Hints:
Blueprint: H1 5-15, E1 29-35, E2 41-47, H2 49-58, E3 62-65, E4 70-73, E5 82-89, E6 96-102, H3 124-138, H4 145-152, H5 154-172, H6 177-197, H7 202-212
Parallel strand pairs: 1-6
Antiparallel strand pairs: 1-2, 3-4, 5-6
Helix pairs in contact: 3-6, 5-6
Amino acid sequence: MFPPASKLWHKRKREAKSSIMKYNENVLIPAIIQDYKTREILMLGYMNEESFKQTLESKLVTFFSRSRNEIWLKGKTSGNYLELVDWSLDCDEDTLLIQAKAKGPTCHTGAVSCFGEVKPAPFDTLSKLIDTIDDRFSNPKEGSYIQSLIEKGLPKIAQKVGEEGVEIVIEAMRDKPELFKEEAADLLFHYLILLRAKEVGLDEILGVLSSRVKE
């Protein structure tokens, strides 16, 4: 359980005078916004007690605008909201780390992050693929290959994983690295579809692997 918003801000008020941070009458605290999947830092904002409460209640990240001196719901104008996923305090309890799901670009320039475009994390593509697969199961799309497998049912999906498994074994025995990579990608793709069909998350599989790691 997270500490209530009021407890956090009352503590900050007591420490404000001795803190090196420049608090104003609203007792602001910096809030770092991080993409909950890619871990990319999206922006830095400030919250007061009221905006933090609104963030927890609405599940939409809400700041206090220092320039306008008012509560500011991120995305109210642009539609690029930040959905709250999780939050935590740093070791000194004077900075918030907000993990959020971005609904569109975070920066007003149209960039994903206010810190500029960065090279995608190695597993960013995997996260996007999982999101696409989830979306096909939740929102059928006519003409989609994934949708065609879903309609054929679990036996067909499982069969495809088996077929791709055989093909990658065959390519592993040949000296054609590019073809091996293609088959490896096909196997991973169909494996992710099978996991979704079985309603098992990749994080659950990684948890099993983690428990097997020997130090």
